[in-house]
């Protein structure tokens, strides 16, 4: 199994097409868990990883509220971990552009700028369109995963322990964190949403993880 590549591809494409020297990350929030799914630069990735681990930042707030945020990094001290990392990377301003995927599932583009105010209406409209494209791709991924489960019982046949450990691995890979930190994220989401850790893990796996190719596909 591996992490789906499309969020990374969308982040890189958005940075290229939106231009303005922007660096872009894609974050997904599901079942109360935030994970960085792809980034156009290492610096943007580190900012989104700090935000995901602290579960606090413009992207998280934008997804929870369902509305776009444009912020000054220097003034965003209420998001302590994110703002510290963003300042360390040399960013001056940022925009978080969310899009709904399904109930309790959202994505957002985090746009990072080293200049104070590149946020023209045209740029933000284009970012909204990119966020909707990412949401559509995640929605399709979820639908395919549910179809796969119904026909092959892929997730249904996993034990609770296996599903949780695979989700731990996915969070470790996307957020660049330790196993203990990943388990704390799943446990916190489970408690706050009043659902089992298995349910949190399975939802994350459906959205983020792709199955290993079959022997035939590898041969091809």
TrEMBL record:
Keyword Coiled coil: no
Coiled coil: none
Gene3D superfamilies given in the database record: 3.30.450.40, Winged helix-like DNA-binding domain superfamily/Winged helix DNA-binding domain
Molecular function GO labels: kinase activity; RNA binding
Stretches assigned to the ANTAR domain: 144-205
Entry keyword set: Kinase, Transcription, Transcription regulation, Transferase
Domain of life: Bacteria
InterPro entries listed in its UniProt record: ANTAR, CheY-like_superfamily, GAF, GAF-like_dom_sf, WH-like_DNA-bd_sf
PROSITE patterns noted in UniProt: ANTAR (PS50921)
Pfam families, per the entry: ANTAR, GAF_2
Name assigned to this protein: ANTAR domain-containing protein
Organism: Cellulosimicrobium funkei
Lineage, highest ranks first: Bacteria, Bacillati, Actinomycetota, Actinomycetes, Micrococcales
